[in-house]
Amino acid sequence: MAVDVHAEVTPELPARRRELADFLRSRRARIAPEDAGLIAGRRRRTPGLRREEVAQLASVGVTWYTWLEQGRPIHASADVVEAIGRALRLDATEREHLFRLADVAPTAADPAIGCLDPEMQVILDGLLPLPATILNSRYDILAWNSAYLRLFPMVAEVEPADRNVLWQMFVVEGCFVRNPEVEWPRVVAVLRGNFSRHLGEPAWTEFVDRLSAASPEFKALWDRHDVAENTNRLKQFRMADGEELELYVTSLNLVGTPETRMVVYTPVDAATAAYLDIELPAH
User: Fold this and answer.
1) pLDDT (0 to 100) of residue 5
2) Which fold has domain 119-275?
3) Which residues, 6+ apart, have CB-to-CB distance to 30 below 8 Å?
4) What value does the mean pLDDT of the chain take?
């Protein structure tokens, strides 16, 4: 029996598939052929690219892409969804939305890496003398101010791949938490909770495998499968020179970049404030 590849989406489709179909058609309609490097050719009845043009740009079959846009229950691999996202010129937020609708785990690392707005550094520097940094959900350290380096001087000295809170905590010598029996399980549990949203992503899997191989302590905690949410809290440090500090850690989610937060450290006592050259407000 012949397949009608021109049949349109029907209301009876499952909600996710119907939403996927509508999203693909709306993204296709907004792209002019010239913008995609194609020749417009004869007059078009509808704006944007044709289905066969999207299929051509993504290097997939026309019938297969048509079925996907019709919301039919076909499986799409991460590489194919990635190719369709490129063909439709999706931004980071739209790309994440496409993968979610297609029920496929993305292949790339966190979109936050290398994608911070320049204004973020201005804000970090404006928070001086308070230490502040920007982290993603894998605890990668994406940006920081000079006061943050007072707490973690090794961040500026290591390779970008090692600029990660857990890697610093479990592998790199320097600044250690004063109560690892409390702090280590909590941070690993937060990572485990975040990991569940990135199952199958090579960047996350490779990071966990690498850290597990480098730190038996991390591996033991990871294998417990505890999960937790990130919270504002008091954090205790023991610096390399033996000085003990207490700071309140406040996390502020960044709306413009998914799964990133600005973390600000506020001294709790006079000794910590003096060590970091911070003047506490008078009570």
Assistant:
1) 41
2) Beta-Lactamase (3.30.450)
3) 47, 48
4) 85
Q: What is the pLDDT of residue 138?
A: 94
Do 15-102 and 119-275 agree at the fold level? no
Round to whole Å and give the CA distance between 155 and 13: 50
List the beta bridge partners of residue 143.
134
Cα–Cα distance between 273 and 267 in angstroms, integer? 5
pLDDT one-digit tens code per residue, 252-277: 998 877 789 999 999 999 999 999 99
Would you kindly state where each structural domain of the chain is located, as residue ranges?
15-102, 119-275
89 C-beta neighbours (distance < 10 Å), count:
13
Residue 199 and residue 4: Cα distance in Å, rounded? 36
pLDDT at 9: 44
* Residue % of the chain over a pLDDT of 90: 42
Q: What was the pLDDT predicted at 259?
A: 85
Whether residue 161 is predicted with pLDDT greater than 60 in this model: the reply is: yes
Q: Distance of alpha carbon 241 from its chain centroid, rounded?
A: 34
Nearest to 232 by CA among 275, 192, 269, 268: 268
Q: Does 235 have pLDDT greater than 80?
A: yes
Do residues 272 and 239 make contact, with C-beta atoms less than 8 angstroms apart?
no
CA 202/CA 199 separation, integer angstroms: 9
Q: At what angle do helices 92-102 and 15-29 cross, to 10 degrees?
A: 140
d(C-alpha 197, C-alpha 175), whole Å: 30
DSSP 8-class letter at 48: S
Element holding 78 (H helix, E strand): helix 78-87
Q: pTM for the whole thing?
A: 0.65
Q: Which CATH number fits domain 15-102: 1.10.10.10, 3.40.50.1010, 1.20.1290.10, 1.10.260.40?
A: 1.10.260.40
CB atoms within 10 A of CB 193: 15
Pairwise CA distance, residues 148 & 178, whole Å: 17
